[in-house]
Amino acid sequence: MAILVTGGAGYIGSHTVILLKEMGQDIIIFDNLSNASKEAILRVERIVGESIPFVQGDIRNKDDLSSVFEQYDIDAVIHFAGLKAVGESVSKPLKYYDNNIVGTITLCEVMAKYQCKSIVFSSSATVYGDPETTPIKEDFPTSATNPYGRSKLFIEEILRDIYVSDTSWKIVLLRYFNPVGAHPSGTIGEDPLGLPNNLMPYIAQTAVGKLKTLNIFGDDYDTMDGTGVRDYIHVMDLAMGHVKAIEKIAQFTEVMTINLGTGNGYSVLEMVKNFEKASGKKVPYTIVPRRAGDIATCYADPSYAKEILDWEAKKDVYTMCKDSWRWQSNNPNGYKEDV
Ligand code: NAD
Ligand code: UFG
How far apart are CA 104 and CA 83, in angstroms? Predict the structure, then answer.
């Protein structure tokens, strides 16, 4: 019996594969490498000390998927594959709906055909829109302000409908807060294409000298120092949340919707200070106007994950920064050959 990890060459997928292998699980990585590199898989193999079956394919392609289900005895899927750039999703909505939604439908059709009905899905805290209060609980209202977020909401609803039609499905929707950090080896980590959209890789690339100045999007929010507050979670803690979900999935008798966050909010300026301390480098910054669509404060109530999965985040913000820095400083060009 094996677990299929779609998007397993990507940032969160690659870290999760390591923990799953360490727990003795058989894994198949399925990825079209649209936002990942084969090098990431080679490095994961080096960390775990064995080779891992990898299929280069697209979740929208039934033949690609069917050949994997023909070849391997797959009993669960962890479904990371998806496009995630919020800004790009606004300019190319159909690309996002096609990749994320059509891809997930195709995946579920093939799973059903092969009687594999257990899936852990990568959802996002973005489905809470601009919450009225924090910390955010799973039963808060949902909304979306961009096609990326809407694709996550639609997929959640599609998966719930699948369950209503056939209650033998086991479905876990994991709503991630802000994943950061890297494997402690410093050999794998987040490697965004082009200019980073997210705070942590932007800070790390500024600290290493690839970028000149961090733009801080607004210092006039109603927060402790005026900058945006988020729930940053170490990617290894997040990965462990998936291991727990897979371990418990057979017991679930309803669709499970679970926040994966730490429960702590940090401002942009606090993150900059922590990163400077962890790296010993200065992170020059400029305050610029707010970024459209951003909210002031977002952090999880993670108590349901503790109750249901017996999981809680363990790594603090300093460790997140330290591990991000180790990855960034050892690999200034990410997985690309040093130039
Ligand atoms: P990532 O881009 O590093 O990983 C996604 C992987 O999926 C990539 O390796 C990419 O090549 C692959 N992929 C994309 N479309 C595919 C397709 N059609 N067929 C096969 N493979 C495909 O992103 P990540 O940060 O590891 O995120 C993983 C998942 O978690 C995504 O679904 C993302 O939306 C979700 N998520 C991420 C964050 C975050 O901030 N990183 C937050 C919340 C949710
Ligand atoms: N920020 C800056 N400068 C930057 C980048 C970000 O000041 O260059 C600020 C933002 O304004 C925000 C905070 O840093 O206050 C975090 O921003 P990110 O872009 O890193 O993260 P977001 O919370 O905006 O969104 C991320 C993902 C979404 C996901 C969400 C919740 O991009 O896809 O986390 O999981 F839905």
Answer: 12
Taken in order 61, 63, 68, 70, the sign of the CA dihedral is positive
DSSP per-residue letters across 274-337: HHHHHHS----EEEEPPPTT--SEE-B--HHHHHHH-------HHHHHHHHHHHHHH-TTTTSP
Domain range annotation of the chain: 2-330
- Which of 15, 33, 35, 110 has the most ligand 1 atoms within 8 A of CB, as the residue to mutate? 35
Query: Is residue 338 predicted with pLDDT exceeding 90?
Result: no
Q: Which two tokens stand for residue 174?
A: 């994991």
pLDDT higher than threshold 60 for residue 339: no
Whether ligand 2 lies within 6 angstroms of the CB of 202 is answered as yes
State percent of the chain over pLDDT 70: 99
Nearest C-alpha to atom 43 of ligand 1 is from which residue? 124
> Taking CB atoms and a 6 Å cutoff, what residues make up the pocket around ligand 1?
6-7, 9-13, 31-36, 58-60, 80-84, 99, 103, 122, 124, 176, 178-179
CATH topology of domain 2-330: Rossmann fold (3.40.50)
* Torsion, Cα of 289, 291, 296, 299 (10° steps): -140
Q: What is the mean pLDDT of residues 269-284?
A: 98
Is residue 318 over pLDDT 70? yes
Residue 216 Cβ inside 6 Å of ligand 2? The answer reads yes
Q: What length does the chain have?
A: 339
The pTM of the full predicted model, rounded to 2 decimals, is 0.98
Give pLDDT tens digits for 59-103. Answer: 999 999 999 999 999 999 999 999 999 999 999 999 999 999 999
Establish whether residue 217 lines the binding site of ligand 2, counting it when its CB lies within 6 angstroms of any ligand atom.
yes
* Residue 326 CA to ligand 1 centre (angstroms): 22
For the annotated catalytic residues, the residue numbers are 148
Q: Residue 1: its pLDDT value, please?
A: 82
Q: How confident is the model at residue 126 (pLDDT cuts 50, 70, 90)?
A: very high
